[in-house]
Design goal:
The chain is mainly alpha-helical. The protein is built from 10 helices and 2 strands, in the order ααααααααββαα. The protein has one domain. The protein has a two-stranded antiparallel sheet. The radius of gyration is 17 Å and the shape is globular.
Length: 230
Amino acid sequence: MHPSDLSREDLSFADGLIRRQFLGQLTASAIATTLWPSLAHAVTEIWEEGDPFCALPNRPLDKPDGYDLDLAFLESFIGLSELLVGVSPLSRQLANQYMERYAHNRQLTRNLLSLVQAYRDISSGNNRPSEEQVKQSIILSGDSAVRAGAKQLIYLWYVSAFYIPLEPIQDPNAPIPVALQDDPSDTRKRAWLYGTPEQYGHALLWSVIRAHAPMTSGGPTSCWAHAPAA
């Protein structure tokens, strides 16, 4: 189902989204807040406070840590993304940009490799895994790096940003840190790390609520004062 096909009931964030069961229906409005309770909080935070034009300094890696971004990797990235965010087809151009950002992020490069490997482990030839397989092997994975990686991928598609611990710029020659873990005891301060304004404008969140991105031109004067058309 595409976000534009959602009903008004689906668009109620406070009521409809949080109550839905994970993968009960693969709709864009449900997926981001039912995978993990923390996702609902994160989406709310960016909606109220995020500023895509105040990106944090974060020096990208020269290359991914131990893997290549070839066509096969992109296909896996897209297939996994479509299952996690509940939207198909996703833009291949945007997927390639997001893959590059993810793979070259110092804190997340190892998460992406673990995540794609987990996806490939449950894929069979050209057939994508089932929803239950994704739930058990990725969402409920015993590997906290895989779980953390999946969360970051959902953030990336829905709000065009990573939500990662706030760390100073490191020496480019410093060792790459271990993969980010899905650890409730990790209380480090986190921040949203955005990409380009164009990516922000194409975030899936705006399609879900049937509106253009704030701080961007997307309609006539006062268009936000009126409810979206059915």
